[in-house]
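Section handout 9: paired folding examples.
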Amino acid sequence: MAAIECGGVGFKCLTSMNTLRGMPHEGEEAVLYTQLNVREDALDLFGFATLSELNCFKMLTGVSGVGPKAALAILSELTPEQLAVAVATGDSKALTRASGVGNKLAQRIALELRDKVKNIQSGSGESARPAGAVSASSNAAAAVQALAVLGYQPTDAAAVVAHFDSSLPVEELIRLSLKSMDQGNRGKK
């Protein structure tokens, strides 16, 4: 949890451990990407260091049976890149490292999010593949799938991944692509 002051008002902001580790010292300026969950009995503010982490949180809470607490636990154990790789490869065991996430829930998360990737791919068609796109069996293709799970358009993800050496490990391709896209978004502000 972080206490964020905005305009002289302090807000309790629930965060993942990954976000907390990257926070500056008390009193220093920080930027968090937030999600406000409105319930009948509470208003909960969630903050994340990167847009990728926020997108992962939204994606996870969209899975049946995954609430904000479980999503934060997962994002405290796995970075967005690691989550994307786990989903793309069907590695539900990686998800069980999070507190409160058992085998059944982890399998449901991997299955539901993997289905989203399949739907995105089948909807795009092979002939619609952009220039610079990669073959389905390469590390770059797995990185594009993982980025699609994180909410990026497959065509945009393929264009960014194509700038990197496709022989790099999938995790590295995802990390480099997210860093590149994050820097591009900051330049647009």
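Moving on to protein 2 of 2.
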Amino acid sequence: MQVHHLAKNNSILNTFLHELRSISIQNDSMRFRRNIERIGEILSYELSKTLNYSSQTTQTPLGDKAIELPNKDIVICSILRAGLPLHRGVLNYFDHAGSAFISAYRKSIKGTDDFEIKVEYVACPDLENKTLILVDPMLATGQSLALTYEALLQNGNPKQVHLVSVIGSMQGVDFIKDKFPEQTKLWIADIDNVLNDKGYIIPGLGDAGDLAYGVKLQH
């Protein structure tokens, strides 16, 4: 797996990461969602440089111009619910792409601090020979991404796989390296070194789904 860690080089990305992490700013849920969306756009721009292109002739009012355009074979899949703002950011740049949605959530194991990942809902177009962009803002343990990919394979085998995340843990990145095809590319804004015993990224930013859409009931 090729890991593209964008925050290793200074850019305007740092501003959006700062605002996502800051407890004095992140409670503005509209701004939180917008910052995830903007990071999705930045990651998509970098990802776009590695796609397959073909030449097409564009007619202008004054003549013709050959332009290399990306092939329209992309499917974007987001993990509900936290993935929705990131999905929108990626879709802003790949607006001709198909969309897939999947639920993957942590179900607590009663009487313990442990949890298991549950996948219960999949809505997906045909993935056979497509370019799959799988988006999840928080790459914590990596289990959600791995189980999501396994579930999606029932809809066909993609020719290329790109993973897009905002913040991950080094443990999660290492975990998924053996769960995806060798040529998979991970596009991630920033990577933190610590994952605590409850599976949360430290310092991370908290619960992305709650910050984007409000606190949920725990079951």
